[in-house]
Design a protein that fits this description.
about 200 residues, alpha+beta, NADH Oxidase, binds flavin mononucleotide
Length: about 200
């Protein structure tokens, strides 16, 4: 698949089929992530590939967070969302039924410059990962929600203090692919300024 096609096809998938993803495909996707640009070419990202009961443990923590976060949300608050509140909580608790969840980590840093550089480099890796998955017919959903309970994530996945989780994505064959959300400024008139 051409890169431009993958960019346009990629969607935040929140419902997955249970079929496993092959080791080879996961390796291909992580190799694409590992080829992202990085500040000073430090390539300081790491990946945790989560399967089996560990996904359930992560979901227990994240599902609790979302249930609490949305406790007082009524129908009006959910308007515009493709989900009911219950579906939203279920997605969080099961990662949409995906057989794999990938966590992208970066090095922790003391200074704001390094924090930014690390975050941006790891985000580039994350985007490569999503696009490679799309090219292989797999679904993903960039998620930072699970980081709200970073303590639980660190405990469950034994993430050491010198690493920082940046983003999480389920990975699997989509059970449902949502429509592309419309661009706020499709002609780019407001978002681009050409200077000479
Ligand atoms: C930094 C970031 C954090 C996100 N966090 C979540 C999340 O916690 N939960 C979720 O369901 N989607 C999350 N998303 C996915 C967005 O909701 C999604 O990308 C957006 O609605 C546009 O849809 P699309 O990805 O299909 O174009 C996140 C996306 C980004 C880039």
């Amino acid at each position: 698949m051409e890169v431009l096609e993958a960019i346009h096809k990629r969607r935040a998938v929140r419902r997955y089929r249970p079929e496993p993803v092959s080791r080879e495909d996961i390796q291909t996707i992580l190799d694409a992530a590992n080829h992202a640009p990085s500040a000073m070419n430090r390539q300081q990202w790491e990946f945790i590939v989560v399967t089996g009961k560990k996904i359930g443990e992560m979901g227990e923590s994240f599902g609790r967070i979302i249930a609490e976060y949305t406790r007082n949300w009524d129908a009006a608050r959910m308007r515009g969302s493709p989900f009911t509140r219950e579906e939203f909580v279920r997605f969080a608790a099961t990662y949409g039924g995906a057989p794999v969840v990938i966590v992208v980590l970066t090095d922790t840093a003391e200074t704001r410059d390094f924090q930014r550089a690390n975050l941006e480099s790891a985000s580039a890796a994350m985007q490569n990962l999503l696009l490679a998955a799309t090219a292989l017919g797999l679904g993903t959903c960039w998620m930072t929600g699970p980081l709200q309970d970073e303590k639980a994530l660190r405990r469950i996945l034994q993430i050491p203090g010198d690493k920082e989780p940046v983003a999480v994505t389920p990975l699997g064959y989509p059970a449902e692919i949502p429509d592309a959300p419309p661009r706020l400024d499709p002609s780019l008139e407001q978002k681009v300024r050409w200077v000479e």
